[in-house]
């Protein structure tokens, strides 16, 4: 019978991913994966050490030749038995990866087929949880498939009748066909390695046999025989490095799982204290606020500790308090309604909890959909778009929702699972005309997935500026570097999206990398950042089965792009980097920026332009280039004049007004311009609020600078950002005195990048009236 061995008991409580090793014929759960008799050569333990947030298991099962060589190959029975063992171990509740040697790959394929087709509900989750299957010398197709067991029988000194092998032929071929037809549908990433050396004079699995027949999957040759291929001698071996890199990538992006069980929770395991919850919601949304109050009451009645913003004392620095409470909480419960999905404060709280979860395994995020099945905004979806959630439809779901939140830290034996959120590539669905803080770059992903589909963020409410006309000139042809510079929420991502649309229309291949998705970039070392960057670049250009090295210097990254990336992609290319200034403050910022400058220079280098001349760069930044890198000759941001994004001019408000049916008169438009000074995000938001909040213009102006007003969510978000960045005193100095502390020019650049200040008549002033009013009163 099968049994499972936990290699990494230290990680089981904090793991985000499970990896199961499955040996082949004549193997076992330990010796198959050891290059010697020394325990230190057991390489599943290396993975457990190198990837502490991954739970590693090794499966053992009866695999002697006598058990498998005969008319009734017990593959189906073995798969059913293994499924039962995995279920008893509570596997399948997190993302799952199998590493299989030889016949073990056939066992896993049969396991997946049984889970998918047998009809037992509790087993189906294994098919959906499996993210990747790594095959080491497993036969999939070709003439050798029917002889596979016989070949191993010869090597293992076992005998078998020809009739018996032929009885297995049809089943093995049918299983291979099922997997090749269904792997992509099940979103299983198959990775394949095959031997290049004979074993006892026999090549058991050659390249043809190793090929699973799945589009885009290329078998990788390994300088080993059928048995040594699964026994890497050290951490530098190709098999180990490749598999570690793959698993590390999945562990980085694995979603936190929201599981449920059946009782009021006890203390948090290992702490002896009650569970702690932080409830995030949109206070202005009446239904959200009412549900939040009920959840707080229910969680506290169950003995849990709960924080909600209404508990904050008057006069407390709410930004610091929210920071402290997110670090304090075990879970952040976020209520997602049509209103809150676009709330900047909700986004900020989720962003903080996301970073806390990555760094400390704390403040896991538990989404609750509040009578809302629409999409999420770009940033919010990047954090929680793959998490499971609780669906609340009406007050009748109140108790059920509390119960599910109480059980979030234990498994669900009933098999009931919350429904998955829309995938990260599904564009958001919002009311027409609703402004978004950041352009939805998933529109680009959709266009790349479906060549020929239109790519545009136009919705009838997009008002062009001079910068749009500058981008209009770049219609493909000559490769170049462009720099798009604009303060926070001035439309950089939207303009970048439009530029990439022009590039795609001209037949240029596009790679888009948003550094926001990297999390807290400055906390990474250069090797980790460059490794993630290289993986993202290869994914964007569709390059697979290439393992990046460890990058010690920017020259290593340049060499990798030159040798491994550019030769694999044909035609003109554009690499677009959004939020390219997020690396400011890292110890290696000059290394990265000088690499980009070098890529630009290589386009005209007499010996390099043949390779690099096809690559254009598009960089979006908020910060003045003088702040980004001290050595001007190594900066990629001064090789061309930047396309500067500023506020809307006064006449643009006439265009907005026309989009909304000329709802405001000329005097009101003049007042709105004075209030907002053409702020690219707040201006369209003002028109939207006038329509959908059913407020009058005078009412909006009166409360515009209050945290309960139509822009309150934005204003609190800006206050929060300044507190985190340590800039709140500098901003107060501006609004009260018109001066910066110590006349520090860098403080001006940082506040300018946030869109909060401008220079006027030799003084630094708030960029609009509502910022000046708000920061004079904010505590």
TrEMBL record:
Swiss-Prot/TrEMBL GO biological process terms: signal transduction
Keywords noted in UniProt: Endoplasmic reticulum, Membrane
Domain TIR, chain residue ranges per copy: 273-410
Q: Where in the cell is it found?
A: Endoplasmic reticulum; Membrane
Gene Ontology cellular-component terms for this entry are: membrane
Residues spanning the membrane: none
According to the record, the residues making up region (Disordered) are 411-436
Name the record gives this protein: TIR domain-containing protein
């Amino acid at each position: 019978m099968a049994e499972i061995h936990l290699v990494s008991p230290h990680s089981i409580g904090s793991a985000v991913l499970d990896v199961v090793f499955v040996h082949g014929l004549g193997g076992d759960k330990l010796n198959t994966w050891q290059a010697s008799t020394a325990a230190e050569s057991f390489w599943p333990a290396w993975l457990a050490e190198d990837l502490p947030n991954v739970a590693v298991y090794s499966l053992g099962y009866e695999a002697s030749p006598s058990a498998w060589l005969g008319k009734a190959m017990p593959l189906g029975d073995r798969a059913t038995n293994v499924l039962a063992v995995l279920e008893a171990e509570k596997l399948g509740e997190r993302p799952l990866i199998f590493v299989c040697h030889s016949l073990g790959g056939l066992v896993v394929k049969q396991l997946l087929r049984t889970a998918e087709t047998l009809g037992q509900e509790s087993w189906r989750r294994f098919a959906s949880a499996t993210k990747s299957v790594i095959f080491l010398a497993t036969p999939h197709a070709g003439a050798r498939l029917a002889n596979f067991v016989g070949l191993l029988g010869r090597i293992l000194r076992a005998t078998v009748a020809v009739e018996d092998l032929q009885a297995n032929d049809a089943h093995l071929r049918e299983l291979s066909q099922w997997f090749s037809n269904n792997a992509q549908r099940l979103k299983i990433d198959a990775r394949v390695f095959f031997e290049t050396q004979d074993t006892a004079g026999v090549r058991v699995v050659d390249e043809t046999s190793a090929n699973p027949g799945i589009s885009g999957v290329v078998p990788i040759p390994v300088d080993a025989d059928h048995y040594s291929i699964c026994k890497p001698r050290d951490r530098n071996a190709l098999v180990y490095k490749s598999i570690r890199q793959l698993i590390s990538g999945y562990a980085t992006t694995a979603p936190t799982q929201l599981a449920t069980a059946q009782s009021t929770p006890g203390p948090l395991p290992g702490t002896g204290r009650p569970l702690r919850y932080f409830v995030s919601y949109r206070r202005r949304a009446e239904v959200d606020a009412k549900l939040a109050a009920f959840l707080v009451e229910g969680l506290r009645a169950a003995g849990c500790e709960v924080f909600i913003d209404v508990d904050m004392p008057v006069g407390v620095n709410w930004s610091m308090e929210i920071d402290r409470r997110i670090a304090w909480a075990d879970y952040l419960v976020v209520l997602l309604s049509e209103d809150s999905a676009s709330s900047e404060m909700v986004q900020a709280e989720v962003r903080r909890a996301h970073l806390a979860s990555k760094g400390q395994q704390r403040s896991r995020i538990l989404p609750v959909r509040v009578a809302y099945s629409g999409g999420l905004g770009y940033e919010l979806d990047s954090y929680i778009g793959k998490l499971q959630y609780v669906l609340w439809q009406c007050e009748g779901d109140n108790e059920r929702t509390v119960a599910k939140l109480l059980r979030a830290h234990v498994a669900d034996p009933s098999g009931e699972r919350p429904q998955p959120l829309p995938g990260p590539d599904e564009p958001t669905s919002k009311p027409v005309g609703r402004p978004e803080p950041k352009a939805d770059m998933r529109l680009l992903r959709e266009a790349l997935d479906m060549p020929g589909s239109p790519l545009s963020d136009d919705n009838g409410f997009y008002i062009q500026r001079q910068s749009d006309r500058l981008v209009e000139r770049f219609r493909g042809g000559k490769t170049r570097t462009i720099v798009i510079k604009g303060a926070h929420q001035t439309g950089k991502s939207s303009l970048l999206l439009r530029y990439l649309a022009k590039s795609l229309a001209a037949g240029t291949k596009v790679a888009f990398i948003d550094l926001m998705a990297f999390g807290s970039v400055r906390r990474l070392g250069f090797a980790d950042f460059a490794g993630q960057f290289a993986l993202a670049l290869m994914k964007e250009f569709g390059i697979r089965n290439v393992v990046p090295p460890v990058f010690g210097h920017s020259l290593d990254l340049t060499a990798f792009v030159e040798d491994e990336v550019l030769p694999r992609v044909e035609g003109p290319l554009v690499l677009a980097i959004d939020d390219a200034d997020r690396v400011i403050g890292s110890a290696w910022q000059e290394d990265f920026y000088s690499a980009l400058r070098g890529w630009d220079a290589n386009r005209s280098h007499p010996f390099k332009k043949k390779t690099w001349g096809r690559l254009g760069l598009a960089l979006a930044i908020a910060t003045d280039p003088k702040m980004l890198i001290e050595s001007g000759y190594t900066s990629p941001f001064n090789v061309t004049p930047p396309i500067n994004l500023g506020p809307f001019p006064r006449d643009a408000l006439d265009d907005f007004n026309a989009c909304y049916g000329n709802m405001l008169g000329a005097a009101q438009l003049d007042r709105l311009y004075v209030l907002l000074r053409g702020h690219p995000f707040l201006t369209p938001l003002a028109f939207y609020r006038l329509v959908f909040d059913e407020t009058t213009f005078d009412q909006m102006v009166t409360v515009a600078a209050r945290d309960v007003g139509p822009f309150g969510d934005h204003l609190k978000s800006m206050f929060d950002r300044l507190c985190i960045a340590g800039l709140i005193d500098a901003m107060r100095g501006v609004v009260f005195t018109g001066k910066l502390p110590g006349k520090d020019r860098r403080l001006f650049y940082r506040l300018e990048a946030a869109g909060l200040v401008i220079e006027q008549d030799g003084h630094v002033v708030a960029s609009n009236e509502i910022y000046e009013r708000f920061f004079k009163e904010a505590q």
